[in-house]
Specification:
By secondary structure, the chain is mostly helical. It has six helices and no strands.
Length: 189
């Protein structure tokens, strides 16, 4: 698909604003009582699998482009984008249906008391640093990925390479920290 003369900057900007706003609103809305027919608490594991697969695809994409395999590079990236869309839809669904899990909530009562804070110690700071950078960069990655894809589909290779040099490490960081954050908070689900 070639989008040589299409100006999609405004739609990409709108999408890049709407997605983080919708996610933020879903975090603050009251959680509805909806019977899903499956245990929604398995969804974070699914999210970690999607993030892991995305990270592997990003590594493959980098390998392919460095070795002149443009078609494989393209398909690795399109698959990574597809997995990221599935992740986003699943993530939003999960957080619409459940309360947020608190890091260090050993007794699973929704409150992290002083004893629980002491039990996890300084690891809390590592977790919150990774979580904060993950969340901020997850919002930033949306327009980066969309503009990188747009430049590729427009066959504007110089601008595609320029933005991809920023997009790739940020996207890879978001994918990897998504898995690390899951591993760290998993005992508190």
């Amino acid at each position: 698909m070639k989008l040589k003369n299409k100006n999609l900057n405004l739609p990409i900007a709108i999408i890049s604003i709407v997605i983080p706003l919708v996610v933020a609103v879903l975090f603050i809305l009251p959680k509805p009582e909806i019977k899903t027919g499956f245990d929604v608490h398995m969804m974070p594991f699914f999210h970690a699998v999607l993030n892991s697969a995305t990270a592997v695809l990003l590594l493959a994409s980098l390998y392919f482009i460095k070795n002149g395999h443009q078609k494989a590079h393209k398909w690795a990236n399109l698959t990574a984008v597809s997995l990221s869309v599935i992740f986003l839809l699943s993530y939003v669904t999960y957080h619409f249906l459940t309360e947020s899990t608190k890091f260090g909530d050993i007794d699973h009562n929704g409150v992290v008391d002083a004893a629980e804070k002491a039990a996890v110690g300084g690891l809390r700071y590592v977790y919150y640093f990774l979580l904060l950078t993950h969340i901020v960069l997850a919002a930033v990655i949306v327009p980066l990925v969309l503009f990188t894809l747009l430049r590729a589909f427009q066959e504007d290779h110089a601008r595609h390479r320029k933005i991809a040099r920023i997009t790739w490490p940020v996207w890879f960081y978001v994918a990897i920290t998504g898995v690390v954050v899951y591993i760290m908070i998993q005992p508190y689900y």
